[in-house]
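Running this now, will post back.
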Amino acid sequence: MAPRRRDPDRRDQIVAAAVEVITESGPHALTHRAAAARAGVPLGSTTYHFADLEELLGAALLAVAERNVARLRRWASSLAPEADLAVELADFLVLLSTRHRQSSVVAYELYSAALRRPGLRAASTAWDAMLTEVFAPHVPDPAALTAMFDGLLHQALVSPTRVTRETFEPSLRRVLTS
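Update: finished.
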């Protein structure tokens, strides 16, 4: 009998598949079976890598948050020293709520799921910590900016109207100058 080969990327494949399931149908649609089918792996692989659904949801939330924060880090590193941060952040919020809408919606669906699922809270607070870390070099109160950013993006995602820079800039300017 040949020895079993271990696939070192299998856990990441399952997490990526879980994110795809959530993207298509929402967090309620995620099951071990759905993730395994999407990843093309045996069902036992999902239960081997994730003790329960909370752990799989937490891993998916962290993966989405890390991807979105990586986008934010690229944005922050591209800022010119003389940039108007209120304008730049407003434009970035527009980008997240339009071109990257699907990824932003998934992040907030998972973030909101933590309200009723304590197992997801560590991953959702990690998202806030990562945002605060990215904002820290640019503002004196990064926690306030994180809260504002989260709230404005959430509002943009649920708004029935298309958002623009002007939607966000005045509020951002107030928090940045206080």
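The mean pLDDT is 89. More later if anyone needs it.
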